[in-house]
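Cross-posting from the modeling subforum.

Setting up a comparison between two proteins and wanted a second pair of eyes on the formatting. Protein 1 (sequence, then structure tokens):
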Amino acid sequence: FVLAFLGWIGIIISTAMPQWKMASYAGDNIVTAQALYEGLWMSCAMQSTGQIQCKVYDSLLKLESSLQATRALMVAAILLGLVGVFVSVTGMKCMKCMEDDQVKKMRMAVFGGVIFIISGLAALVATSWYGNRVARAFYDPFTPVNTRFEFGSALFIGWAASSLAILGGSFLCCSCPRRETSYPPSRGYPKNASSTGKDYV
């Protein structure tokens, strides 16, 4: 549960960070006195003095469809993670809720783990899709050199967070209640009949 919870916190941090991609200074680019970042919600410029200026995207409809889909996946991952937290806490052994029925309590923990796995997969798809777009634009020969971007720190945090969420959810799924196998009653060996002087065939 701790792993999945940390992964969910990481997904929130990754979604809020503006460093999803950063301006590349590779090749013939001249290193300027500012660093350019772009995220899901805003674009930022950091001066050499450490001052950061950010601008929120003006219109949602003017954004690329892939960016809107990435936003939707990350928000869905956060909401699913929130549901997974509440469901998993209900299934924890240290909680008093549903302590009368241990089987249902374990099933709640398993259900919470499944929700965490789905949340982690949604975040993993979003970050990988965004990273693929950044890499394709970087290696595209038609992309101007001064407009190329590289992976930002938010992508790496998102990858690590989604992996933690999936791993923690998998561990929660391991608390599935075991089915009690009913074995047939063992047959006792027949007692040796007392010899009565007659042989039976």
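Protein 2 (same layout):
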Amino acid sequence: IAHIYCEEVFGIVGENFTFPVKVDWKVVEIIWKKNKDKVVEWEQLNKPTYFGPLYNRSVLMENGSLTIIDLKKADAGPYELEYWDSVKDHNLNFVLVVLDPLPEPTISCNSSDHKLVLTCTADFQGPLSYTWKLNDNPQSHQEQELSIPLEDVNTTTKATCFVKFSQMERSSEIPLSHCLP
């Protein structure tokens, strides 16, 4: 039985992306392919040879990982790392998903039932994590919505919403005084 390892990985247009490869053995030969087309080839004691659309935009690291510089939508797709450690061949498969840059989140607010309710939204293709911080409170809240009793609202307080996906994070801020009825 052959086990095929395939990991879905995410990159962002315009950023640099490195495949998460951890090769423990002394590698003798490496070949990276995209859609079965060779993009990098390296043999011990030689410099890597780059091919195709990644020719001027990629760097092969010593640990076998490949970094693509200035990621483009066209870089999305299946990648395969084949390496030989002088004992046997190894294969790692990845599917690279290239997403648009993370947008700045939008904060909306309304008051009802003696509470101020703040909602944070961002139009993005992937699952986001949300965090709220108030400048007069060190605690953070891990929800998309933040509810504050009206009697606890300080008009000098600012609320900041952080949205995060993978390694990217963006934020927006609103003074609570803008939200009061």
